[in-house]
Design brief:
By secondary structure, the protein is α+β, with helices and mostly antiparallel strands. Strands 1, 2, 3, 4, 5, 6, 7, 8, 9, 10, 11, 12 and 13 form a 13-stranded antiparallel sheet that branches. It has an 11-stranded mixed sheet with strand order 15-14-24-23-22-16-21-20-17-19-18. Residues 623-741 form the TraG P-loop domain.
């Protein structure tokens, strides 16, 4: 039969001359490696691709079906001239290194008490979860070619197809180079040994040393049903018997064990024409058997006999298989599922094996331990691209796709900030907004959902672990106590406040331009437009304002930006001194805000605007002063960003009750410009609001929200949920995580990944008291 011939041909080409390895290096079947990640293993060349997880487990039924069909398309696209291996790798992370990357070091600056509390909270989240296990996914393609150049051309073509099909699943795929591939094997063979130096292929070649020395363990021992790598025990299992119906979560359940383990699914696609001929031959054989049986019954005068059940079932299944291949876009493929797991003791190994076998039994499948084939089994599981176990099972595309290697997305970016725990896997969510294309963020949720608490938690982490500047626009006096506790400066801005912010503050670093006066002149034009109404300034009035601005700053600039900074009172006097009638009109229009009762921005600044953490408290501004106050505050914030940029320093901006900014045209336009440009100034904007519907009335705000790569969505009202679902393409199943949930629960959207999360903080801490709006709340209410 042709299919058997195809399989026999694959076995024949894979066959190697058996040699007893005399060293651990010889036990590793890699023969040659190239810098671009192509390995020669046995008689084949192989290349691996790493691909990211997707949110399969929390997807709706319709979305799951779509993902399943897209994954089936990927399997259908596999070339019949090659074999594929999908590998899930549970890799243990070095706990000390993991904690070191996450915990905040002490600085002796009076804030170490808060650092200790924060570190204790982080450690409590690490223990009892799978954070010490990181799961990675690989797809390894292996093919027989005459030389590496032919193989390279083949992998370039196939690699494009793989990346494209995985992108359709929202999974990001990347080719692995030689160092990245070898790192997989080093982590498996030498998990207990810290890496002293990175792999350098050229350095190894110069020394005449084999690359295998970098990955191989000190010893390997293979026994009847287990093996030892140094002091660790391992065992290889394989799927001996498959159920007629398998649930799509079996693979993820097998990999739930918090141990070093690998699970591989080997796939050998069969050319469709050969598969069809084979099934037709099988069907012909079944029909012949049925005809012969009926002839025998007729000979015995038994004309009413029903065809036996097993024959009828065989006929039905063969017809279905033929129908799958000819009309339902299915392919025939040979499949093999193997897995290897590691433990620190023989007892632990046996206990884990029983757990894995029981998981398989739960799905009506039979897994077994390989006897006398542990070495071949290990080489089959590891992503070399080899298949040395031949217990293959005939499958269709769909029955292969049921062994789907996806579960739930994780967000774990080294060097990032802790934002909570994955609601599905309970793993920590650590994200680094600096690494995103657009690190700006929104936090959206109803009152009491925990927006302020979440933002304060991020501020605490930034304040305690970095030297970055933090600027807060605070319309509700939410952040005052926290900023004071972190040794920041609170600027209370109101008509009656003793603190003043000079609208004409300017130093040599003002603005993005070489001439700071040009930027300041534009600001003053905007300020007067705010006073007299947008579009109401004539060309003559603009010219007068520009002239007066230059006159007011002349002496200050000549003095090297030292001495007394001009104020709006100086500008008022300059306007009154001008001969034009329009100048006096401008002075009169601004008199309330310069010499009148709302003159808080017309006096010299008397607060520390150079502090690392500043809270601009604008709660008491009032309706009349709010537009002007917002403008002056935003000008101060933007110029701090520019000054920090020139020093190479990062600035984080937090704007509470973000919808208020869009009630005034100038502040809405300013924030949109800032949002688009701030990335190049090493800055990041975070907007918080409970009035999502109000915010989404602004097209500008909708655009900002849709383009944000980092969003935290907490409990939402029904109307807001519908709007967000349309804007961000959130499924009904995912919406359940922001529907009637407790404070601190919701969805995090990071770089296209949408992950459900939960976040709690120990109540009996000083930090909780500072971050919680009300001492009686579990979370801060906003």
């Amino acid at each position: 039969m042709r299919v058997i011939r195809t399989l026999n041909q694959a076995k024949k080409m894979d066959r190697e001359k058996f040699k007893i390895p005399r060293s651990v290096q010889q036990a590793i079947p890699i023969q040659r490696i190239w810098q671009d990640g192509i390995f020669q293993v046995g008689n084949k060349f192989s290349k691996s691709f790493r691909f990211s997880d997707i949110n399969y487990s929390i997807a709706s039924k319709a979305d799951k079906t779509e993902m399943f069909l897209d994954y089936s398309e990927l399997l259908n696209a596999l070339d019949s001239g090659a074999s594929a291996k999908i590998t899930l790798n549970n890799r243990r992370i070095n706990k000390e290194e993991f904690e070191e990357s996450l915990l905040i070091p002490m600085k002796g600056d009076g804030l170490d008490g808060y650092r200790e509390e924060y570190n204790e909270m982080l450690l409590s989240k690490v223990s009892g979860t799978n954070n010490s296990i990181q799961q990675e996914r690989y797809l390894t393609i292996s093919v027989h070619k005459k030389n590496v150049d032919e193989a390279r051309t083949y992998f370039a073509r196939v690699g494009t197809d793989i990346v494209t099909h995985l992108a359709k699943l929202s999974s990001v795929a990347e080719e692995l180079d030689a160092e990245e591939r070898l790192q997989i094997f080093r982590d498996f063979f030498r998990a207990e040994q810290p890496q002293c130096y990175p792999f350098d292929l050229k350095a190894f070649a110069r020394k005449g040393s084999s690359f295998k020395n970098w990955i191989c363990p000190d010893s390997m021992e293979f026994h009847k049903d287990y093996f030892k790598l140094d002091e660790r025990y391992g065992q290889v299992l394989y799927m001996q018997d498959y159920a007629s119906y398998i649930k799509d979560d079996m693979v993820s359940e097998l990999c739930d064990l918090s141990r070093d383990l690998m699970l591989s699914i080997d796939i050998l696609p069969v050319p469709t024409d050969e598969a069809v001929k084979e099934i037709q031959n099988r069907l012909l054989g079944v029909e012949t058997n049925v005809t012969n049986w009926q002839r025998r019954q007729n000979a015995n005068n038994n004309f009413s006999a029903v065809v036996p059940y097993d024959m009828e079932l065989q006929r039905k299944e063969t017809k279905e298989m033929l129908d799958d291949l000819t009309t339902r876009d299915q392919r025939m493929m040979f499949g093999l599922l193997t897995m290897v797991h590691m433990a620190d003791s023989k007892e632990q190994l046996e206990s884990d094996t029983e757990t894995l076998l029981s998981v398989a039994r739960k799905h009506l499948c039979q897994m077994s331990v390989l006897k006398w084939q542990q070495a071949d089994g290990m080489n089959t599981v590891l992503p070399y691209g080899l298949r040395r176990i031949h217990t293959l099972r005939t499958l269709t595309t769909e029955s292969t796709a049921v062994l789907i290697p996806f579960h739930t997305q994780e967000i774990m970016q080294p060097g990032g900030i802790y934002y909570g725990q994955n609601a599905v896997s309970k793993n920590m969510i650590v994200a680094d907004r600096r690494k995103l294309l657009n690190g700006n963020s929104f936090r959206l949720g109803v009152s009491g959902s925990g927006k302020s608490f979440s933002a304060k938690e991020e501020i605490v982490d930034l304040a305690l672990s970095t030297e970055d500047d933090i600027l807060i626009l605070d319309p509700e006096s939410e952040f005052t106590s926290l900023v004071e506790a972190l040794d920041g400066e609170v600027i209370h801005i109101s008509a009656t406040s003793d603190t003043h912010l000079n609208a004409l503050d300017m130093d040599a670093a003002y603005g993005d331009d070489k001439n700071p006066l040009i930027e300041k002149s534009e600001f003053i034009l905007s300020l007067f437009e705010q006073l007299v109404g947008a579009g109401n300034l004539s060309a003559k009035e603009k010219s007068i304002l520009d002239r007066c601005t230059a006159d007011v700053y002349r002496e200050y600039i000549r003095g090297g930006f030292r001495g007394q900074v001009p104020t709006l009172k100086d500008l008022y006097r300059e306007l009154m001194a001008q001969p034009e009638e329009e100048a006096r009109g401008l002075a009169l229009s601004s008199e309330l805000f310069i010499n009148g009762s709302l003159n808080t921005f017309a006096q010299p600044t008397n607060v520390d605007t150079k502090s690392r953490i500043i809270d601009y408290d604008i709660r008491e501004l009032g309706e009349q002063l709010m537009p002007l106050g917002m403008l002056v505050t935003l000008d101060s914030i933007f110029n701090r960003v520019i000054q920090n940029w020139k020093k190479g320093k990062t600035t984080w901006i937090f704007a509470d009750e973000f919808y208020l900014l869009f009630q005034y045209q100038y502040s809405a336009d300013f924030f949109y410009r800032l949002y688009k440009r701030i990335r190049k100034y090493y800055g990041f904007v975070t907007g918080l609001t409970q009035n999502v519907e109000e915010l989404l009335k602004s097209d500008t705000a909708r655009l900002m929200l849709a383009n944000s790569e980092f969003l935290i969505l907490l409990n939402q009202s029904s109307t807001d949920r519908e709007e967000l679902a349309r804007l961000l393409n959130i499924s009904d199943n995912q919406l359940s995580y922001i529907t009637n949930v407790g404070a601190g629960h919701g969805l995090i959207r990071c770089s296209g990944n949408l992950v459900p999360f939960e976040n709690t903080f120990p109540k009996n801490t000083k930090l909780f008291e500072l971050m919680s709006t009300s001492a009686g709340d579990f979370r801060g209410k906003k």
